[in-house]
C-alpha cells in the first residue's frame, strides 16, 4: 500500500531496491534519508536535524545551500547549461583564472575534470608524458581516488582488492610522529628520517624509471598528518635533484580546509602539478582539475595532449567554482577556517583529549582535525570497530554527524561554521567519547 508509506520509507525502500552503494556490502547498507540542508545543518526525512561535522565527504567547505552559489548555478543553467570542451565560455575562463590565481608559482594553466580521481589520472598522465617514464611514488597513508590508476596510487587498504601490481606504482612512508615507523622522538627527527627514506626509495627504484612523486599536501582520509616544517620542501628538493615531477594533491586539503587557500601555502613549496576538486565548488556541482606549471603546459605546446573528457570545463560546474571562490573571498571564509583552528578546535580538542583516555592524539589545522582513537593509550592499539561505531552512534543520537575513517573521528565541518555551532559539536563529541573510553580495558 503505497499511500500508507511515509515519503521517507519510500525513498529508503527505493534506494535499497535500486541504488548500488560505494565501498559497501549491498545487504548491509543503511543510508539515512536527508531531505534538505542549510549552512551547517542537515534535516533528515524524519524531521531530525543534524549538525554537519563531516562536510559530507569533506567538500561542503562553504556549508550547504549558500544562496549566492545556488543562484549562480541557476543563472548559468538558464543561460548556457552545457557546452563541448573545445569551446570557450565565461564560466570556464572565470574558473580557470581564479584557480590560477590561487595556485602557487607558475601553475597558470588548468585542465578541468569531473572530480578528484580524474584529476589524479590526468596529472599522472601528464607527468608520464613529460618524463617519458612510468613509475609513480606515493605514500602508503594516502588516498588519491578510485579509478584504476588512482586506486593503485592510493596507499591505504582500499587499494588492496584493486591492486593488480602492474600499474607502476611504488609506496613509501611519510612523516607521522605519533605512529612513527622510523622510531623518531621529535618532529625534526621524523622529518629528516622520512626524507632519507624517500631518497633511498628513489635511488633503489632507479630515478630513470620514475615519472613523479605524488602526495597530499596534508594527508586527509589517511589521518590528517600535518607534515613537519621542511618535509615538503625536502621532497621538492629531492624531485629537483633526481629530475622527478612533483604532484601535490589538494583535493581534500585545499580551498580553505587547512585555514589557508591551499594546504601547500603553509609550506614553502611549489609543485609541478596540483590536483584539486571538492571545495573548489563546495561540491554543489562536481568539478576537479589539474593546475599545470608553465614547463609542462609548454611541453604540450606543439604536441597534442593525449587526453580529454566530454564534460571538461562544464559551464554549470565552472559557474559554481566562480561563485564559490568569490563567496570565499567576500566573506573571508579562509580566515574563518584559520580562526576556528586556533580559537575553537585547537584548544577545544586539546581539552577533549585530556578528558578521554581513548583519544591517543589530536592533530590538525584550520577546519581539518583528526582524533586518533586507541583501545590502549600505552601501545596505541587502535580502537575496536565496535567501540568506534558506538561512539559515532552516540554522536548521531545527540544530533551530530561526524566523519570517521579507520580508527579515527575527523572534525571537518564547513570552514564557515559559526564558533557557537562548532562548540556545540565539540560538546556532543565530548559526551559521545565516553563510549570509546568504556572500551578501554
Ligand atoms: N584525492 C584526495 C586527497 C581525496 O580525498 C579524494 C577523495 O576523497 C580524491 C583524491 C578523489 O576524489 P573523487 O572522489 O572526487 O574522485
Descriptive overview:
The chain is of the alpha/beta class and 441 residues long. It has two domains: 32-65 and 332-438, Aspartate Aminotransferase, domain 1, CATH 3.90.1150; 68-330, Type I PLP-dependent aspartate aminotransferase-like (Major domain) (Aspartate Aminotransferase, domain 2). Helix content is 39%, strand content 17%. It has 14 helices and 16 strands. A seven-stranded mixed beta sheet has the order 4-10-9-8-7-5-6, with helices on both faces. A hairpin with a 4-residue loop joins strand 2 (41-44) and strand 3. Helix 3 runs antiparallel to helix 10, helix 4 (90-102) crosses helix 10 and helix 11 (333-355) packs parallel to helix 13. It is globular. The N and C termini lie far apart (50 Å). The model has no long low-confidence stretch (mean pLDDT 96). Pyridoxal-5'-phosphate binds next to helix 5. Keywords: Pyridoxal phosphate. One of its GO terms (molecular function) is pyridoxal phosphate binding. One of its GO terms (cellular component) is cytosol. Belongs to the class-III pyridoxal-phosphate-dependent aminotransferase family. This is Taurine--2-oxoglutarate transaminase.
Amino acid at each position: 500500500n503505497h499511500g500508507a508509506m511515509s515519503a521517507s520509507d519510500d525513498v529508503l525502500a527505493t534506494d535499497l531496491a535500486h541504488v548500488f552503494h560505494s565501498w559497501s556490502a549491498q545487504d548491509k547498507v543503511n543510508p539515512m534519508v536527508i531531505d534538505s540542508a542549510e549552512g551547517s545543518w542537515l534535516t533528515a526525512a524524519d524531521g531530525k536535524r543534524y549538525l554537519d561535522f563531516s562536510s559530507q565527504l569533506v567538500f561542503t567547505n562553504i556549508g550547504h545551500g549558500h544562496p549566492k552559489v545556488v543562484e549562480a548555478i541557476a543563472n548559468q543553467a538558464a543561460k548556457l547549461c552545457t557546452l563541448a570542451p573545445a569551446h570557450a565560455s565565461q564560466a570556464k575562463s572565470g574558473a580557470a583564472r581564479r584557480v590560477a590565481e590561487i595556485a602557487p608559482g607558475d601553475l597558470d594553466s588548468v585542465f578541468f575534470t569531473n572530480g578528484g580521481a580524474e584529476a589524479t589520472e590526468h596529472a599522472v598522465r601528464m607527468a608520464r608524458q613529460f618524463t617519458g617514464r612510468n613509475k609513480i611514488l606515493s605514500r602508503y597513508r594516502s588516498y588519491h581516488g578510485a579509478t584504476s590508476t588512482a586506486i593503485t596510487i592510493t596507499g591505504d587498504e582500499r587499494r588492496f582488492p584493486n591492486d593488480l601490481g602492474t600499474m607502476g606504482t611504488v609506496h613509501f612512508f611519510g612523516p607521522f610522529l605519533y605512529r612513527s615507523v622510523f622510531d623518531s622522538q621529535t618532529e625534526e627527527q621524523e622529518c629528516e628520517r622520512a626524507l632519507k627514506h624517500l631518497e633511498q626509495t628513489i635511488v633503489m627504484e632507479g630515478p630513470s624509471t620514475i615519472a613523479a612523486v605524488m602526495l597530499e599536501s596534508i594527508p586527509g582520509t589517511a589521518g590528517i598528518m600535518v607534515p613537519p616544517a621542511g618535509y615538503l620542501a625536502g621532497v621538492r628538493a629531492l624531485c629537483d635533484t633526481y629530475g622527478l615531477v612533483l604532484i601535490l594533491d589538494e583535493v581534500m586539503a585545499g580551498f580553505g580546509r587547512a585555514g589557508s587557500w591551499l594546504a601547500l601555502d603553509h609550506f614553502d613549496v611549489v609543485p609541478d602539478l596540483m590536483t584539486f576538486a571538492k571545495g573548489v565548488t563546495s561540491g554543489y556541482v562536481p568539478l576537479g582539475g589539474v593546475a599545470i606549471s608553465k614547463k609542462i603546459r609548454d611541453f604540450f605546446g606543439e604536441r597534442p595532449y593525449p587526453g580529454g573528457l566530454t564534460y571538461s570545463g562544464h559551464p554549470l560546474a565552472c559557474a559554481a567554482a566562480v561563485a564559490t571562490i568569490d563567496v570565499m573571498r567576500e566573506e573571508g571564509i579562509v580566515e574563518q577556517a584559520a580562526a576556528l583552528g586556533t580559537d575553537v578546535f585547537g584548544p577545544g580538542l586539546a581539552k577533549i583529549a585530556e578528558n578521554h583516555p581513548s583519544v591517543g592524539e589530536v592533530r590538525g589545522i584550520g577546519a581539518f582535525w583528526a582524533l586518533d582513537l586507541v583501545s590502549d593509550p600505552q601501545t596505541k592499539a587502535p580502537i575496536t570497530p565496535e567501540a568506534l561505531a558506538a561512539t559515532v552512534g552516540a554522536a548521531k543520537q545527540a544530533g551530530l554527524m561526524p566523519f570517521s575513517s579507520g580508527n579515527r573521528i575527523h572534525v571537518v565541518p564547513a570552514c564557515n561554521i559559526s564558533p557557537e555551532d562548532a562548540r556545540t559539536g565539540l560538546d556532543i563529541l565530548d559526551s559521545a567519547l565516553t563510549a570509546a573510553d568504556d572500551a578501554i580495558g
